[in-house]
Amino acid sequence: MSSKELKAALKEAREAVKNKKYSDAIKLCNKILREDKENYMALLLMGASYQETDKKEAASYLKRALAANSDQTVALQGLATCADDRDLPEVCEKLLALTPDKYGDLHGKLLGVASRGEQVEKVLGMFERETSKEGEPDRVRSAFQCLSKVLLADPALEGKHETLVERTLEFEVDNPEDPFLHDKFKRYLKLLYKLKLHEKLVRKACAMHDRFRNDNYPLEWICKVYAEELIDDCSMEKLLTKPLQQYIDAAIEIKSDSAL
């Protein structure tokens, strides 16, 4: 096959894929690959042709395309639609570096992998790294939202990832529009006590009280920290947004027999 014939065959194959005539595209690409086993465009088109009928076969051609060309973006984007859960996190990780503006779609794919119970630890590590992207607040927000859906849906993960859960909840309770804000605040305060982050516990309890004035839960934590002398009186007064006695009085007024 001459260079001119090769270009014509690739052009015809692209048109066939565009028009969803996949069997025609496969025949053309097979003809090309018999003469040039590593033809990048033919491998990409084979991957595209098998996307709807055989994702495993599509993935095999796209992996060959990755090995055949230094510019991996197109092949990786194809793989992201057909790779199995074992390979998808690695594909997404590479695409996050190559196409960072596509973070939303890629985060969604990673969330799907974790929600199916596959490679949860690997996905959590990737999302944790995503939360450290400086100057990309929307990307960081997306990563924390995904972490929340993975971590907070499985209590068993909290014991293994307490610090990450704490960071995630800290981010989540800053969203006043969250319909589950109250429950997340409660879980957060309890975790802060467990982690012995007493000063942060007091600050966040004050924040919860400001948001939920008629709820005794944050007041109970403030009183508990004070009663157990976990913070000295001087530091306590600096952390509170109003005198301690006002919190104590409010706790008694809302529920006189309150106890954690």
TrEMBL record:
Highest rank taxon of the organism: Eukaryota
UniProt KW keywords: Repeat, TPR repeat
Gene3D superfamilies associated with the record: Tetratricopeptide repeat domain
InterPro entries given in the database record: Ski3/TTC37 (IPR039226), TPR-like_helical_dom_sf (IPR011990)
UniProt keyword annotation of Repeat present: yes
GO cellular component: Ski complex
GO BP terms, alphabetized: RNA catabolic process
Protein name: Tetratricopeptide repeat protein 37
Organism name: Culex pipiens
